[in-house]
Amino acid sequence: MQMKCRKKLFRKAAVMGLVTIAALGFSLFSTALAKAGEAVVVIVSADNPMKALSVEEVHKYYENDILNWPNGKKIVLYDLRTKDEARQRFSEAVLGKDPQKVAMEWANKKITNTAKNPPRTVRSAILMQERVAKDPNAIGYMLKSDVTSNKVKIVTTIE
Amino acid sequence: MTKKWCFVLITAMLFLSPIRAFADAISELKKEVEGLKTKIELLEAQDEETSSQLSDLVDISGYADGEFKLTDHETADTRSEFRIHHLSLFFIKQLSDKWRMFSEVEFEDAPKIEPSDNTDPGEIFVEVFTLEYSHNPYANFRLGRFLNPGGIWNVEHYPPFVLTQEKPMLVGNIFPKTNDGLQFFGSVHDWNVTTDYMLYVSNGTGGNPGHGDINSDKAWGADLGFKLPFLTRTEIGFSYDRENKDENNDEVRILGVDARLHWNDLQLQSEYAKKYTDQLSGSTDQTIGWYSQLTYDWRKWTVGYRYDWYDPNHRNDENRTITNTVALNYHFTPKVVGKIEHHFIKDESSSDVRYTKTLFSVAVYLGH
Predict the structure, then answer these.
(1) Residues A64 and A24 grouped into a single domain
(2) Are residues A76 and A150 in the same domain?
(3) In angstroms, what is the C-alpha Rg of chain B?
(4) B62–A127 C-beta distance less than 8 A
(5) Same structural domain for residues A23 and A46?
(6) Are residues A67 and A108 in the same domain?
(7) What is the nearest CA distance from B212 to chain A, expressed in angstroms?
(8) Is A130 on the interface with B (CB under 8 A)?
(9) Residue in B48, B105, B178 to test binding to A, most A beta-carbons within 10 Å
(10) What 3-state DSSP class applies to B203?
(11) Are residues A91 and A13 in the same domain?
(12) A112–B62: do the CB atoms touch at under 8 Å?
């Protein structure tokens, strides 16, 4: 009787364990899924007078067609690393190109001395947020959930 | 009944206590991960600041490429051979918000230069050296040796970024490769069109213009480029270069037009240039060259075809050289590219000789 009870108990514990693992797995998977579908936002410093920018305007800034803000100050562009998910989605949506290709175009412009205003690459969204917050002429982008500071403001949302 | 409830209670406690403990452990681990993440980001920030301080000293980048050429037409200049083609180093220094220094030192064909031996065909030379002053997007100045802005390939010619090791025939044969002088340049964007303009005055070509001007009058030129929102992107350029005649030198006038059309991963690039040389004898020679190149990027591959036409003396119809080129590039990494290119050459200047040339090469970009 005691043996049977223990077996039952063990079976229930195993089932509960499996359910917990499955729930955890599902939670991780759904977080990743949420991140993958998450919007990329373009940010500027809270001190920047721009309130909103169209995707086309951001494209012109990052393509160096426009080099200055409407107030005449030079635009300071920030990029994330090419493997960063936000960079990949930004590059495809705004520039219409793979980030590796964009990086090579910048390298070519750099050594041919034709880069007018190349972006500065930072290693993480938190660093980009810090840099953009500090500089009223800076512009950057990141996943919406990575925006944690009130010293930056969202000017474009790319779904 | 009581026994049953006792059993249920014990069982529930048995299940719930490890779950609670598990949840607590996860919560602690989460806190620990967050702490570590912050620490890593701070370290990365410090590292980045250090790198930025180091690169503030001077930014060094460059490229290198080597190749193996296979040909069925061996001459003194063309053989089947390995070639250590280039090792080029760029030094860039941002001196202040407005001042900047840019230079390129090129080692071509791995030269062995010794005081007693000046017969080696290689070259070490300062390809570019400029001191720049940027006033605003519309007015910038560049003093020193700069690449002549005529056409596309003369500026965008670095092996890690071009389809073939062999350049189109007009490059370096019509517009001068570099100019030593002063350049004024700027950019305007309006009505969705970006206009880039450039004017320069420089020493005449020939000899070592970095040391002394061979012409009594200066050379001058202009370049105008438009970036238009047709297809994915369309670029059109017009170039002009002029060297004045004096008692020892011919007068040279060069006109050029170029276009580059991007449509997603397809790109068409074309250049045309014509040089008039008014000789001291009174006659005028014409040199004409043009090429069209179509490339398509697919993942890590680039495939391309080029038709290249060059006539060094347009008055004589039997002087033309026509080259058809097919090429395949594979980008091992964004900074390393392997190339295979095959050229079919029809040279009418030497009794209609036809031959082929195949090159296998690897080019590496050394920057960050």
Answers:
(1) no
(2) yes
(3) 30
(4) no
(5) no
(6) yes
(7) 25
(8) yes
(9) B48
(10) coil
(11) no
(12) no
Q: Which CATH superfamily is domain B60-365 in?
A: Porin (2.40.160.10)
With an 8 Å Cβ cutoff, is B15 touching chain A?
yes
Nearest residue to B89 (alpha-carbon basis) of B121, B58, B48, B133: B58
Quick: pLDDT tens for A100-127. 889 999 999 998 999 999 999 998 898 8
CA distance B304 to chain A (A): 17
Contact call for A101 and B147, based on CB within 8 A:
no
Chain A closest-CA separation from residue B156 CA (Å): 6
B187–A67 CB contact, under 8 Å? yes
Beta-bridge partner residues of B307:
B292, B324
Chain B: give the shortest CA distance to residue A24, in Å.
10
Domain count of the fold of chain A: 2
Q: How far is Cα B23 from Cα A131, in angstroms, rounded to an integer?
A: 36
Domain boundaries, chain B: 1-57, 60-365
Identify the CATH number of the domain in which residue A111 sits: 3.40.190.10
Q: Which residues of B touch A67 (CB under 8 A)?
A: 137, 187
Residues A19 and A73 in one domain: no
Inform me whether the C-beta atom of residue B365 falls under 8 Å from chain A C-beta atoms: yes
Cα–chain-centroid distance for residue A86? 3
pLDDT tens across the length of chain B (368 residues): 566 777 777 777 666 666 777 788 888 888 888 888 777 776 776 676 666 555 567 888 888 888 888 888 877 777 787 888 888 888 888 888 888 899 988 888 877 776 665 666 677 888 899 999 999 889 999 999 999 999 999 999 999 999 999 999 999 899 998 888 899 999 998 888 999 999 999 887 765 555 555 555 678 999 999 999 888 889 999 999 998 766 666 788 999 999 999 998 999 999 999 999 888 777 888 999 999 999 999 989 999 999 999 998 887 667 899 999 999 999 998 889 999 999 999 988 767 888 999 999 999 998 87
Q: Which residue of B has its CA nearest to A69?
A: B137
Nearest Cα to Cα of residue A64 among B20, B198, B189, B306? B189
Kindly determine whether residue B155 and residue A112, on different chains, have CB atoms separated by under 8 Å: yes
Chain B residue with CA closest to A5: the answer is B7
Q: Are residues A114 and A146 in the same domain?
A: yes
Chain A residues 17-36 within an 8 A CB cutoff of chain B: 20, 24
β pairing state of B123-136 and A40-45: unpaired
User: Do residues A69 and A130 share a domain?
Assistant: yes
Listing DSSP states for A7-54 in one string gives: HHHHHHHHHHHHHHHHHHHHHHHHHHHHHHTPPEEEEEETTS------
The predicted complex's ipTM stands at 0.77
Range of the domain at A4: 1-36
Q: How far apart are CA B340 and CA B69, in angstroms?
A: 10
